[in-house]
Write a structure and sequence with these properties.
The structure holds 2 protein chains of 2 kinds. Chain A folds into 2 domains: about 5-120, no CATH class; about 130-240, Rossmann fold (3-Layer(aba) Sandwich), CATH 3.40.50. Chain A starts with 6 loop residues before the first strand and ends in a 15-residue tail after the last helix. Chain A has helices spanning about 15-20, 20-35, 50, 55-70, 80-95, 100-110, 115-125, 145-150, 155-160, 185, 190-205, 215-225, 235-240; strands at about 5-10, 35-40, 75-80, 115, 130-140, 165, 210, 235. By secondary structure, chain A is α/β, with parallel strands linked by helices. In chain A, helix 12 (about 215-225) links the parallel strand 7 and strand 8 (about 235). In chain A, helix 5 (about 80-95) runs antiparallel to helix 6 and helix 11 (about 190-205) crosses helix 12. In chain A, strands 2-1-3-4 form a 4-stranded parallel β-sheet, with helices on both faces. In chain A, strands 6-5-7-8 form a 4-stranded parallel β-sheet. In chain B, helix 2 packs across helix 12 (about 250-265). Chain B is an alpha/beta fold. Chain B is built from 23 helices and 12 strands. Chain B folds into 3 domains: about 1-40 and about 320-395, no CATH class; about 50-300, NagB/RpiA/CoA transferase-like (Rossmann fold), CATH 3.40.50; about 405-470, no CATH class. In chain B, the strands form 3 sheets. In chain B, strands 1-10-7-4-2-3 form a 6-stranded parallel β-sheet, sandwiched between helices. A 4-stranded mixed β-sheet of chain B has the order 8-5-6-9. In chain B, strands 11-12 form a two-stranded antiparallel sheet. Chain B is globular and about 95 Å long. The chains are: A alpha/beta, B alpha/beta. At the A-B interface, helix 1, helix 2, helix 3, helix 4 and helix 8 of A face helix 1, helix 14, helix 18, helix 19 and helix 20 of B.
Chain lengths: ~260, ~475
């Protein structure tokens, strides 16, 4: 290949960093397999959504400004999350409407930022993966990725190339799981009703594994399914696509 | 209407625990969503029409003064009268004065959310005038002493067995052993009761889906025909409408009508679309002697030119609440005031204050499904976020949540410290959790209903640093 490999800055996301590093390594592997060099800027923390969606524009701006600086100079910025990628792509520029200098930098970052799976298919032209995952899976469409970034067919297209995997869609796959960041702790009764319905839909497919592209939703759905004693395993889609499924699934331990 | 929006959390808790409500709300999910999707898919230009409808309203709102003055001129020319009402109280007074001037004892009413907003029925009753709701859903909830739980399906929180019981209790003139379990039987019985009321009414009150500046016309869309009988049979017709209902021309009405019913019920157009211009003319076979428009502001003009102006594009189709998973979980009454669902979450704080209605824009996951189906492309989540910003600026959000957020932000803005802390916490939580926690201090809202998955072990950052060192060696 004569093409110089694109430099990708991996936006790890705070939840992946803390809860599920495997997803970060899976993302790095998928990106490297797609011909990219992957770097992880040290000064990243979180995309700032907890502040932004709580109405704390000041802190959201400070955190966004740090992220913009941390990811300057990369050809692309990729996050294993539709929600965080949409924050950088769709919302950062609007945070700096009164600061033209920062607004231009934020717009430049926004134009280079992608969610992992859609980056692989839509930008890098990946049409298949070398991975094996025997069993049936069902896929939850996380809201931000689906409605802000148009991610729907991309994960399904790549999952279809995983050896041994069958996809069993659940009803209302596009309906919110009830996570919503701080929503799930501020309005626990409503959130519980929503995640219970999601868990019903997932369980009724009989699928062995539930996949999604956002760890927030996955922690919420895993928490509910495990509390109910469901047999379903829960994983981030990147783990399956990268063939990195040796780790216990979300909410499970090596001892079982 | 009195607000219970401050008690939103308590209202919601009661709602999710109500099995009858859950049964009734399942119809919202099963009915409206599929019908709208089918109707939208059948019309190739549907998305283009949404843009056109949005643009019409944006243009109108940018020149609202011009179109309202033109509208009033046309209403006056055709023999009607516009009553400008800055507040709900002004509107109530205007309606009462018109009713008193003709010695009205009963009034029939078509469906009107503005009448709910100004609590018109209570005011009329308190002044010795009997209001009779003629829309079937409104009629049912009037019997029950309730308020609408949905802006186009006011009785959607009820199941038909409850309605049957209400009819049997109130309609005592009918034989007790009559069959009444089928919707058709309920409709026929309500129709029989209401027929007499139309003829006896002194005044008919309707809302308006549109006011047309070009002609001074008011437009209602209904499926039962009750609106027509309400406005044609009595001697006086009063239209109660808010000022953002105005559009420039009849052509504009026809454009917006093409998205309205499809978005609301999935119909191509509603069964009846009725245009009323002024009182009865000499050559007309029927119609009212007087035609009044009670035009309500009630805070809307202060939304012009600000970050909530887009909300004034709303045409009250109900698609946002039909598609809202929060509305599906709790129904409309939990919101505590006239307008439920996502449109209420944005509009209500504008009308009754964010101090009163702060929960409404907060109780959203920002899933964005409302915006994706809104025929007027109103950015509902964005505007809910604007309300949260106002709340935050004014220190109205709960102190505990603010303190938690401030602590988190303190670390998130300091990467070295942040990674030091998370680097300590992750392995500790992993060791304690063994897969997941059933209880966690300070996370009761989470663990009351679900387990908290534990971290895997070390953070990604720690592990990545290790991998890179390994590679460079």
């Amino acid at each position: 290949m004569s093409e110089k490999p694109p430099r990708v800055g991996l936006f790890v996301t705070c939840l992946v960093d803390l809860f599920r590093p495997t997803v970060g390594f899976a993302a790095a592997k998928l990106l490297e397999d797609a011909g990219c060099t992957v770097e992880v800027p040290r000064t990243q923390t979180c995309c700032g959504q907890p502040a932004y969606n709580s109405g704390d524009r000041g802190d959201a701006r400070s955190i966004a400004a740090r992220t913009v600086e941390a990811f300057e100079g990369y050809d692309y910025v990729v996050a294993p999350s539709g929600s965080c990628a949409a924050m950088l792509r769709e919302h950062y520029p609007a945070l700096f409407t009164d600061d033209p200098g920062m607004a231009a930098k934020a717009a430049k970052l926004a134009g280079r930022t992608y969610e992992l799976v859609s980056f692989l298919t839509d930008v890098r032209g990946v049409t298949g993966v070398e991975a094996r995952f025997p069993g049936s899976v069902t896929y939850h469409d996380s809201c931000s990725g689906l409605r802000e970034l148009g991610i729907k067919h991309q994960p399904r297209a790549l999952l279809a190339t995983v050896d041994g995997l069958t996809l069993a869609e659940h009803a209302d796959a596009e309906v919110c799981c009830g996570f919503g960041g701080t929503f799930c702790v501020k309005y626990p009764d409503i959130s519980n009703t929503m995640v219970s319905e999601k868990a019903d839909a997932v369980e009724s497919t009989g699928a062995d594994t539930l996949l999604a592209g956002d760890l927030g939703c996955l922690l919420n759905m895993a928490g509910k399914l495990k509390r109910r004693g469901a047999k379903t395993s829960i994983r981030h889609v990147a783990e399956v696509l990268a063939g990195m499924t040796e780790q216990p699934a979300i909410g499970e331990s090596a001892e079982g | 209407m009195e607000s219970s929006a401050r008690a939103f959390k308590e209202n919601a808790r009661a709602a999710v625990a109500d099995p009858q409500l859950k049964r009734a709300l399942s119809h919202v999910k099963e009915g409206f969503i599929g019908k709208r999707a089918k109707a939208a898919a059948k019309l190739p230009e549907f998305e283009v029409l949404r843009d056109a409808a949005r643009d019409i309203k944006n243009h109108t709102l940018d020149h609202l003064d011009l179109y309202l003055e033109h509208y009033e001129r046309k209403v006056t020319e055709t023999g009607g009268q516009v009553h400008w009402c800055p507040t709900a109280e002004d509107a109530r007074r205007a309606v009462l004065e018109i009713c008193r001037a003709v010695g009205a004892r009963t009034v029939t009413k078509g469906k009107s959310m503005i009448a709910e907003e100004i609590a018109l029925n209570d005011h009329l009753e308190a002044n010795g005038i009997t209001p009779v709701e003629t829309d079937l859903g409104e009629y049912i909830i009037q019997l029950r002493g309730e308020t609408p739980s949905h802006i186009i399906a006011p009785a959607v929180h009820l199941t038909k067995d409850l309605v049957e019981a209400d009819f049997r209790a109130h309609h005592t003139a009918f034989p007790p052993e009559r069959p009444l379990s089928e919707p058709r039987q309920l409709v026929n019985e309500a129709r029989e009761v209401l027929r007499g009321k139309y003829l006896a009414a002194d005044v008919g009150i309707t809302g308006a889906n549109f006011l047309v500046a070009e002609t001074g016309t008011s437009v209602i869309v209904t499926n039962e025909g009750n609106g027509d009988l309400t406005q044609v049979l009595p001697r006086v017709h009063i239209v109660v409408a808010s000022l953002e209902k105005v559009v420039p021309t009849l052509e504009d009405v026809s454009t917006i009508l093409r998205v309205l019913a499809r978005s609301a019920t999935g119909q191509e157009c509603s069964t009846y679309t009725t245009f009323s211009t002024g009182p009865r003319r000499a050559e007309d076979p029927d119609g009212p002697d007087q035609y009044h428009v009670v035009l309500l502001d009630n805070g809307r003009s202060s939304m012009l030119g600000g970050e909530f102006q887009d909300m004034l594009r709303c045409i009250r189709c109900g698609a946002c609440m039909n598609h809202c998973p929060v509305y599906h979980a709790i129904g409309g009454h939990a919101y505590g005031w006239v307008y439920p669902g996502p449109m209420g979450a944005v509009l209500t704080p504008n009308l009754i204050g964010i101090e009163e209605a702060g929960h409404l824009p907060s109780a959203s996951t920002f899933c964005g499904r409302c915006e994706s189906v809104c025929p007027m492309r109103i950015p509902l989540p964005k505007m809910m976020r604007h309300w949260r910003e106002r709340e935050f600026e004014r220190h109205l959000s709960p102190a505990g949540a603010r303190a938690g957020l401030a602590l988190w932000a303190f670390f998130a803005k300091r990467p070295s410290l942040y990674h030091f802390v998370t680097g300590m916490a992750a392995p500790l939580l992993a060791a304690l959790g063994r897969g997941r926690f059933r209880r966690l201090p300070l996370a009761g809202g989470w663990t009351a209903h679900r387990d908290m998955p534990a971290p895997e072990g070390r953070t990604f950052r720690q592990l990545w640093a290790g991998r890179r060192q390994g590679e460079s060696r």
